[in-house]
Every structure is written in structure tokens, then in C-alpha cells.
Amino acid sequence: MSRVYNFSAGPAVLPEEVLREAADEMLDYQGSGMSVNEMSHRSKTFQGIIDAAETDLRSLMDIPDNYKVIFVQGGDSLVFASVFMNLALNKRADYIITGNWANKAYKEAEILGDPKIVASSKDKNFSYIPDCSDLPIRDDASYVYICENNTIYGTKFPELPNTKGHELVADQSSMFLSEPVDVTRYGLIHAGVQKNVGPAGVQIVIVREDLIPDDLPGVPTMLRFKTQADAGSLYNTPNCWGIYVCGKVFKWIAAQGGLQGMKEKNVEKAGILYDYLDSSDMFSSTVDPSCRSLMNVPFVTGSPDLDAEFVAAATKAGFVSLKGHRSVGGMRASIYNAMPREGCGQARRLHEGLRDQPLADTSTKNAAGCPDARVAKEIPCTRSTA
Ligand code: PMP
Predict the structure, then answer these.
(1) Which residues contact 165 (CB under 8 A, 6 or more apart)?
(2) pLDDT category, 357, cuts 50, 70, 90?
(3) Domain shared by 196 and 49, yes or no
(4) Higher model confidence: residue 318 or residue 50?
(5) 173 within ligand 1 shell (Cβ under 6 A)
(6) Where does a domain end: 202, 228, 255?
(7) Which residue in 55, 118, 176, 383 has the most C-beta neighbors within 10 A?
(8) Considering 208, 226, 255, which residue would you say is the last residue of a domain?
């Protein structure tokens, strides 16, 4: 068996230990005689799984008791709408647009009410985070919305906006559990788990209790946060498998030193790539250094042809999903929690090797079948696992 270095923006690389454990338990989860995939969500065994997942997440993030944690479905794109339905009771909320996902959240709100854009970095293709120290936030805005880490553009808020006393709502999908955050500074945090935490199909909403309305006329049952908050996320059949894998990832993160440990590793990994990009005469970062993401690292050569050649050569060498999003072009390395440090180091050496040798020469294959002999003699094409 061999595994590639997977730089996908999501669904994305998961810790190997977690995948192995899940594989071992596939036919018989801890003596139950069945897979979690086959188990009633009303069973005592599954109740144990979801309870442990919530407890472990609360402990990792130090979530205060007056916040509810709910596991929902429908995609983070549906949470864009449910956030507005639950929190903007007066139909007014203000949005900071730092990329496609914040914009999509705003567009959902536009269908439902009267949102306002209070800042945007669209003028420079979302390559920076605007100054959010004194925004024209409406007095009656129910909340200020941010996408804290922008998966496509590789930016992250270096500091939280001044909301002028309004609730802060953050989409943390592509940075969830990558570093410590102070939950008390947010009214609501939401995240799709398919980047840093688990398989696609689960979204986690962490919301302060007093923001969950008791009564929401006209809002479907499943879109009311109260429904799942009151039912411990078991109003209907949840994504049992997804929650089970998330629970394992929570334990894995705790074993890595918790969120502080994770942050230290992530700073080091991202540093390997950014230091190289800043010193390279072939590749460059597309993001203002003041707000670079630790998780998503877009970069370009300046030539779309060369970018495409690089992606093709990298793929052959076992570095997959490096192609950038179409709105930025070039490449993007998503280096979530489960990307080993070694993956970033090897990627850097791949870049260095390709810079030293014209891409056209990369058809020369070494004994391992890698395209660039100078790079690949030291870089295994794929990651062999025992
Ligand atoms: N928010 C962010 C920051 C994302 O990166 C994505 C997906 N890549 C979404 C929201 C949308 O998630 P979903 O596909 O689960 O709707």
C-alpha cells in the first residue's frame, strides 16, 4: 500500500492513525458485533460515541457551558442560511466579504432578508483582509459575519474585527481546530468538518445558548438550532459515521498537544512553504504577508503554462491536488492538521528541484518512477506505509 501527499482543500487528508483505527473497527466496533455504519443512532453504543465526541470537542476548545454544540447536516452552505434564520430575527446582519464563501453566506442572507456588506477585499481579488477596526456596522445589525480563514484565497483574519458590541459569527471551516480560539469572543462558530476534522457530511455549530430562539415561525424544524440543541443532535438520524470519525480526530488532536500543540506544528509547516515562496525566483505567494493562512497556501509562477506543468510534474511525483482554485489560478497547498511536516518539507524540495531543472526535463524518470531525477532521488514518489 502506498499513500500520496494529499494537498486537497477538502475533503482532505486525515490522520493515518485514525483511518487505521476506523478500518480495524469496521466490522466490529468495540465488541458490538457491527460497524458504526450499521448501528442504530438510538443505541447506547452510538450515544456513547456522540457524547464522547462532544465532551472531547468541548475540552479541546474550552467551550463554556453556556454554549451549545450541535452536529448538523446539509453542508456548510446550508448553515449560511440557518445562521441568518436563527440569529437575524430582525432580518438585518452585516457581512465582511473576504472571498467566495463569505459572499455565498451573504447571498443566502440576501434571499432571506436585508444584509449589508460593511467591508470587502474584492478590489484585490481577496488577497488581503481589510482593516476592520472601524466599520460602518448598523446599530440594529444582529451580528457581524466573517469567514475567518478563506480556503480559496489563503487569507486568515490576523485579528478579529471590531464588531462594536455586536455578536460575531464566524465560518471556521478551513481552520477549525488548527489553533486555539477564544470561543467567548463569538456568538456562533460554524464549520464543515471535511477539511480538518473528518469525512464530508457533518457541520459543527457552536452557539451561545441565549442566541437560540425559542420560537421561529415559518422556519422549518430542521433549520432551527433549537431542534438539534434540545435533542442532543439526535432529533433525526445524524451522520453517525462522520461523527464517529470526528470523535477519533478529536482524540488524535488531544494527543498532539491539543490546539496549542497543533498550532505550533502548523506554524512550522506553513513556515517551510512561505519561507521558500518568499525567497524563490520561480514561485511566489499570492497573499499579503500580514494575513496568510496556516492552512491554505496559494502560489503562482506567473505563467499559467508553467503552473500547469508544475502541477502535472508534482502529481506524477505523488503530490496530489495542488492545482489552485480557478479564481486564483496557479497552485494551492492545503496543509491541514493531518498533513505531516515531512509532506511540507518534501513539497519544498520538489519546488527547489523543479526550479533547478527546466520542467521539460522532468520526463526523465528515476528508478522510483518519479519525474525529476534530481528531486526524486531523495523524494519517494508515494508515501510507503507498513
Ligand atoms: N465555508 C468554507 C470556508 C469552505 O471552504 C467551504 C467549502 N469548501 C464551505 C463553507 C462550504 O461547505 P459545504 O461544501 O459543506 O457546503
Answers:
(1) none
(2) low
(3) yes
(4) 50
(5) yes
(6) 255
(7) 176
(8) 255
Structural domain boundaries, residue 299: 2-11+257-384
Question: Given ligand 1 and candidates 73, 83, 101, which is best to mutate, with the most ligand atoms within 8 Å of its CB?
Answer: 101
Least confident of 24-28, 130-134, 279-283: 279-283
Number of domains within the chain? 2
Same structural domain for residues 236 and 363?
no
Do 242 and 265 share a structural domain? Answer: no
Q: Closest ligand 1 atom, CA of 10? A: 8
Q: Which ligand 1 atom lies nearest to the CA of residue 194?
A: 15
Give pLDDT tens digits for 146-185.
999 999 999 999 999 999 999 999 999 999 999 999 999 9
Looking at the fold, whether 206 and 270 belong to one and the same domain comes out as no
Task: Mark whether 242 and 365 lie in a shared domain.
Answer: no
**Catalytic residue (choose from 101, 252, 269, 372):** 101
d(CA 121, CA 125): 7
Cβ contact 7:323 at 8 Å = no
